[in-house]
Write a structure and sequence with these properties.
The complex is a heterotrimer of chains A (111), B (357) and C (337). Chain A is mainly alpha-helical and 111 residues long. Helices cover 46% and strands 2% of the residues of chain A. The longest helix of chain A is centred in the last third of the chain and has 15 residues. Chain B contains 16 helices and eight strands. In chain B, helix 5 packs across helix 7 and helix 6 packs across helix 7. Chain B is globular and about 60 Å long. Chain B has 357 residues and is of the alpha/beta class. Chain C is of the alpha/beta class and 337 residues long. In chain C, the strands form six sheets. In chain C, strands 5-2-1-9-20 form a five-stranded parallel β-sheet, with helices on one face. In chain C, strands 11-18-12-13-14 form a five-stranded parallel β-sheet. In chain C, helix 1 runs parallel beside helix 2 and helix 1 packs parallel to helix 7. Chain C is elongated. Classes of the chains: A mainly alpha (111), B alpha/beta (357), C alpha/beta (337). Chains in contact: A-B, A-C, B-C. Chains A and C meet through strand 1 and helix 3 of A and helix 5 and strand 17 of C. Strand 1 of chain A pairs parallel with strand 17 of chain C.
């Protein structure tokens, strides 16, 4: 192969035709509040971990819905399970339980 | 697909295209990459259609490439454009006909600017007078050369020696029509058929018996950009855009690509070679590339012009598979011979994109 | 007996006519189409409780018992005002009235104007109104080839919040309609995967937010981003592109069917009518009213009132309220004259 000094770049697009939504379905099966999120961001705003790292519960859930399982599982490790997000969530998403489910899923779903 | 829906949109985007007495201006880059295309345009207009086309040796680049890379400031490009307009009027012509889509976009943008900001036009008048002593008037008609061939597509088709039909199967050739971004994306009403479903090349292809294929990344830029290509380190960005298009059109098995923009022609032709050498991947049938033709080359082939006289040996993606499908009579031995039979030397073959498969 | 002319026989016109007749006025409704009931009669079921539209329309039509009277297929093409009396002309007939209520409603946004969405070109791009027609006819959506779609996308804000097509305003009802229709499709075709592409979900009315949550519970996917363009794929599937704005990344997917949530546009012909009455359209093209807070049915011309979706996008509840408000205002006007 010739090295031209440049190369094609990876396409950076969510492709919903190929996204792996198995974890999203599995979490929803075990906790239907997973689907109730309205992306308001109060969980991330109040998050203890989010003050020191770029952890966001909203983003973790969103990544799972786009099939980005590995990064979501990795991110979930940052949660300290303090429960502040459960207090603020206006849709009663069972946030701590969902974190626990993601960690549990680590064994089954980690690609 | 409901063809009547496309026809409805096409009917909403028709433009005035002059009938005769064209003032022709060249593209900067096309002369070297597709050297026969402009000549073919002149031959078709003058010899086949009997039109008056004037070409002024004093005309210059529109400086569009410099403008888009932010080397040439707006007042400068307006003055250069005004000078080209002045040269046209001095020769008694009013129908400005650029063969480059970047230029067409530049002329359109500047005419629109002058329409909405007359003070810019007045300033330009001053600059031109000061710099050259010349006066200018706007053209009465501005049409890209592909618009002109579109206008005369039926006349050309009536004189056709070949059709865009696969002579082995009898079916229409499947054609990707790629429109330069600056043809209509900036000003949809200035393009035949508008920006979303342009008709300018589709109309040619259909008149010549071919079938246009509608693939998902049809509207995607070829990746030429301006600064994106000129800086070597950025070229990965450029080639990625073309690659996305090739991947999207590949399942439709196009027989060739027709474009109306010098940059698109160049990139879609050359990048197939580069992608072949980088990744070992080809996008045509049987390991070949997908030939990329200018609209003049397509019209010329249909009219029975010799492909080598039109400079089609200069394509990096070999055009011979298409010539064979169309049943064009040509002499493979003359591919690399000059007009007097002298040997021009044969370029190295690509390692992956097959030639003459 | 004083006379009131009501122009438009949709829900607003019918409700106002009925109220005015009960107050003792002689009321005539002029409907340009061959049937009363307006857009609502073409709908299958209504948000938020999915009541059949026909119930609402039939109830309103039952008020037409001579007074109010209705002229169908009667477009008013000329109006003149002289000494506080109005003369309305249709087909060379002249009707007299002491007050006029404009209740000409709206038109659906012509979706083909969003050229890049391929409506009228691609086989399986339909409008929300066409989907209602399919619900009425089959109870479920059908692709052009007759099959049931298995993957659908609802596109919010088609002809709303879009300056490119001169519709900068929100049409209000499309968000909740999309959510209602998504639920209905899911119930009709349980295995269907459904996506709603939205910018905001404007769930302003009672029960609307509940409907949204119900849709989430039923597994309908909400993607925050506006459709940029659609392309047709082999097999007449449709590739759609948007930005997933919650992750700041482009998103694409192929679907069997795209449903365009067409917004409300000013009704054609309303311009001439309101000009004849001495009124001007507001900046969005709807009938201008003088006081949006305290008198939302009054126009700047004495004796001319406007109610319902001709004054801007409205749901049925708001239109019925406006109709009743107009009846009261017309009553006050005719008694003070």
């Amino acid at each position: 192969m010739i090295d031209f000094g440049f190369a094609p770049m990876e396409v950076s697009v969510h492709n919903m035709d190929t996204a792996d939504l198995s974890l999203a379905h599995w979490i929803n099966l075990h906790d239907e509040t997973f689907n109730h999120c309205i992306a308001c961001g109060s969980c991330a705003a109040t998050c203890t971990a989010g003050q020191f790292t770029n952890f966001s519960f909203r983003e973790v859930c969103h990544a799972i819905r786009r099939g980005e399982i590995k990064s979501a599982i990795d991110e979930s490790e940052k949660c300290m399970l303090c429960g502040k997000c459960t207090l603020v969530c206006p849709r009663n998403v069972n946030t701590r339980n969902i974190i626990m489910l993601i960690r549990k899923a680590n064994l089954t779903f980690r690609p | 697909m409901k063809p009547e829906g496309k026809k409805r949109i096409w009917s909403e985007y028709q433009k005035d295209i002059a009938d005769d007495k064209f003032y022709f201006v060249r593209s900067c880059i096309r002369q070297t990459f597709f050297p026969g295309s402009d000549t073919t345009f002149l031959k078709i207009l003058r010899e086949v259609l009997g039109k008056d086309v004037y070409e002024n040796p004093d005309h210059t680049t529109c400086t569009g490439i410099g403008y888009h890379t932010e080397v040439v400031p707006f007042p400068t490009i307006q003055t250069v454009v005004a000078r080209n307009f002045a040269l046209m009027r001095e020769k008694g012509y009013v129908n400005y006909t650029p063969s480059c889509v970047t230029s067409f976009g530049i002329y359109t943008e500047i005419l629109e600017t002058w329409h909405h900001f007359p003070e810019e036009k007045e300033k330009t008048r001053g600059y031109l007078k000061k710099a050259t002593g010349r006066e200018f008037e706007e053209p009465e008609n501005l049409a890209h050369t592909s618009d002109v061939l579109y206008k005369f597509r039926n006349e050309i088709a009536a004189k056709a020696k070949y059709k865009l039909i696969n002579k082995h199967t009898g079916k229409p050739l499947k054609v990707v029509d790629h429109i330069g971004c600056h043809y209509a994306k900036m000003f949809p009403s200035k393009g035949v058929g508008g920006a979303e479903y342009p008709q300018v090349l589709a109309g040619l292809v259909e008149a010549f018996g071919g079938e246009v294929i509608d693939y998902p990344e049809r509207r995607h830029c070829c990746g030429f950009g301006f600064r994106q290509y000129f800086v070597q380190a950025n070229r990965g960005y450029s080639i990625s855009a073309s690659k996305k298009k090739f991947e999207s059109m590949e399942p439709f098995q196009p027989d060739f690509i027709i474009t109306n923009c010098p940059g698109c022609n160049y990139f879609m032709d050359r990048w197939q070679y580069a992608l072949g050498e980088m990744e070992g991947k080809t996008y045509g049938q049987n390991g070949e590339g997908i030939p990329v033709l200018t609209y003049e080359e397509v019209a010329g082939l249909v009219l029975g012009f010799d492909p080598w006289e039109m400079g089609m040996q200069m394509h990096q993606t070999d055009v011979e598979p298409l010539l064979r499908k169309m049943g064009v009579e040509y002499d493979p031995d003359k591919k690399y011979k000059g007009p007097n039979g002298e040997d021009l030397g044969k370029p190295m073959s690509p390692r992956f994109v097959k030639e003459n498969a | 007996m004083k006379k009131v002319a009501v122009i438009g026989g949709g829900v607003t016109g019918l409700e106002a006519a009925s109220q005015l007749a009960q107050m003792g006025y002689t009321v005539t409704v002029f409907e340009k189409n061959s049937a009363a009931g307006g857009h609502v009669s073409k709908w299958d079921r209504l948000f938020p409780n999915r009541r059949h539209s026909i119930e609402v329309v039939n109830e309103l039509k039952s008020y037409l018992n001579g007074n109010p009277a209705i002229y169908l297929s009667t477009a008013i093409n000329k109006v003149t005002k002289k000494d506080n009396r109005f003369q309305l002309e249709a087909y060379n007939q002249v009707f007299e009235a002491d007050a006029v209520l404009i209740a000409t409603g709206f038109e659906l946004f012509p979706a083909e104007r969003k050229e890049e969405y391929g409506y009228g070109i691609y086989d399986n791009v339909i409008t929300s109104a066409e989907l209602e027609g399919m619900f009425k006819e089959n109870g479920y959506p059908v692709k052009r080839n007759g099959d049931k779609p298995k993957r659908l996308a609802f596109i919010h804000c088609v002809g709303s919040r879009d300056e490119k097509v001169k519709r900068p305003y929100c049409s209000k009802v499309c968000c909740v309609t999309a959510v209602k229709q998504a639920i209905e499709v899911k119930e009709a075709i349980p295995e269907a995967e459904i996506f709603c592409l939205y910018m905001d979900l404007r769930m302003f009315g009672p029960g609307y937010e509940d409907l949204y949550k119900e849709a989430q519970q039923k597994g309908i996917n909400f993607i925050r981003g506006r459709l940029s363009e659609a392309s047709e794929l082999e097999g007449s599937r449709v590739l759609i592109k948007t930005e997933d704005t919650l992750s700041s990344k482009p998103l694409k997917m192929s679907v069997d069917m795209v449903v365009l949530m067409v917004g409300m546009s000013p009704a054609q012909g309303t311009d001439e009518l309101i000009a004849a009455l001495g009124l001007q359209p507001n900046k969005d093209g709807f009938v201008e009213i003088t006081d949006y807070h305290l008198n939302p049915v009054k126009t700047k011309v004495d004796g001319v009132f406007a109610a319902g979706a001709c004054t801007g996008p409205n749901n049925i509840t708001d239109s019925i309220n406006a109709a009743r408000s107009a009846a009261v205002e017309i009553h006050k006007y005719l008694n003070n004259k």
